[in-house]
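Researcher: Please translate sequence to structure tokens.
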Amino acid sequence: TMLTEEHGLRLEAPSALRAAMYTFAAFLVAGQIPLAPLYLGGQLSQSARFGVSCLLAAAAFAAVGIIKGYVLERSALRAAVETLAVGGIAAAVAYLVGLVLKQIVPV
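Model: Translation complete:
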């Protein structure tokens, strides 16, 4: 058909279970990267752990973007910058929500 011959698209649908398993595994691996400074315990000050965690999160976002660019056959640099921007904004919003909730809910 035209889809497979001219556009290289498959007619059969990909396995949802397989995609879900890969997504879950990738989430587990990538999600551990920013937590690495916390595993070091008292070897770093709290502010140093936060800074290193932010840098590692940025590196993880960039790496995911590079992989995304490769898989989608797009510019790896552009995909990395896009993913880093979206992930950075999401992380900043989550941090700000945490600050607000900290004022509302005493811990």
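Researcher: Any highlights?
Model: The chain has a mean pLDDT of 89.
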